[in-house]
């Protein structure tokens, strides 16, 4: 995305524009991370939030020996600003949808059990946790109903 085009947009439009790079590079983590990396270091929190979401999108369903998406996104999902925390929370939820990763269960549980967590972050944490847990549970239920 040309910077001149990106920075013409306002607030959440910036996040959407950067996150769309994740969809363009879906499942191609090497080129996707390379394109998104420059936006991860932006001073604009909306751009960083979109980058985290884009990293989650590009990583969806990708299984590699190293877990770069988790390493990059986790740091920001507990960060300083609400918009980057939400971007990180949703990025993790999308990247690991259906994975049932124990570390994500505990990560989201900690966020949701903290009485100081803002409502929006509670909502997005519960949605992301559902994405991580619900898909395999639904598949089990479907297979059981076919067997009955």
Automatic annotation (TrEMBL):
Native source species: Aegilops tauschii subsp. strangulata
The organism's place on the tree of life at top rank: Eukaryota
InterPro entries: ARM-like, Proteasome/cyclosome_rpt
A biological process term (GO) from this entry: proteasome-mediated ubiquitin-dependent protein catabolic process
Keywords of this entry: Repeat
Cellular component GO terms held in the UniProt record: nucleus; proteasome regulatory particle, base subcomplex; proteasome storage granule
Spans traversing the lipid bilayer: none
The protein's name: RPN1 N-terminal domain-containing protein
């Amino acid at each position: 995305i040309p910077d001149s085009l990106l920075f013409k947009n306002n607030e959440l439009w910036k996040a959407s524009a950067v996150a769309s790079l994740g969809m363009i590079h879906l499942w191609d983590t090497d080129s996707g991370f390379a394109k998104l990396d420059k936006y991860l270091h932006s001073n604009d929190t909306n751009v960083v939030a979109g980058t985290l979401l884009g990293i989650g999108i590009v990583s969806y369903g990708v299984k590699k020996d190293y877990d770069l998406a988790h390493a990059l996104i986790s740091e920001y999902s507990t960060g300083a600003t609400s918009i980057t925390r939400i971007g990180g929370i949703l990025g993790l939820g999308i990247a690991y949808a259906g994975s049932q990763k124990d570390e994500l269960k505990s990560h989201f549980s900690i966020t949701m059990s903290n009485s100081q967590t803002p409502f929006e972050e509670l909502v997005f944490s519960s949605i992301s946790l559902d994405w991580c847990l619900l898909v395999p549970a639904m598949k089990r239920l479907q297979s059981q109903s076919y067997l009955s």
